[in-house]
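Please check these two lines:
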Amino acid sequence: MTACLLIEVAPADYRPRQPFDNHPYQPQYPETIQMNTILELKDRRDTLTLEMESIQRDLPPLEEALDSPEVIQQDRQRAVQDEINDHNSRISSLKLQIHILNKKIHRLEALANRESLTAGYISAMATWKADELELNEKRNTIEIRLQQVRQSDQEDMAKARQAETHAAAAYAQAVAWGDVEGEKAANAEAQKAAKNLTTAVEHHRRQQLLITALEQELVTIDQHITEARKEHAKVENDASYLANLVLEEKWNEAAKVLVETGGKLWAARKLIKRDQVALMDLDVPEQGENVRNWTWRELADQSHQHSLLDLLAA
């Protein structure tokens, strides 16, 4: 008798099972969303919003009826109150559903537009940073000029007062010594010093106006710098949120690939009767809105989907 070796041949149209075929946790990148598209989620949200608004419109008549003589006479207050409670409970439930849908929509839209959003965030951060640098340069220029004006004003006033003091002292000395010519010269110098002091006082008044204006300009620039920093921080926070979303999705996709590969490894080890102890410690948390972990149970579930041909094609 001749031994016959049977070899399983893959059909021409054979396709190995793809990651997560028929699995309840399908990858959710915006490009591959099957049922819960952004448009469908928005339609669902709009439907719930209309329902909530309709229930909210029904509440005031019920609240008014609660204390009406007719309801009291018919002893229907408890029934009406129960109806009001049912309405409020339904409104609270709808608000929660709408909130969850809004979060999902925002997440999916951010992921779908992540490239344009990223470019916009980078450009905006650069713009606000450049604005802050420009404002700081202007602030430094004004601050230097302010210090120069203050110093010049103080020096001019000190010189004018000193000249007047010296002229008065010279006049007094000339009088004391009976120096008539010296008295005349000192008197002339005193008049000149007094005139210069009057001019210096007027100049000081104008300089004070200039100093006040420069100080006010510093206050305005500081406000603009604060605004630029706040806007930069806001954009930075939005950009960080987007980065977190994208990386969460990449984490989840990598985890799903890991589970898919782990499922094949689990299946291969079952074929060769090897234990799965090394895989039992798997515990990978899913990131994002869903709160769950991928464990060895997902590997075991995945293993049932793979034939030997799937494993050989891996």
User: Anything to note?
Assistant: Residues 33-112 form one domain.
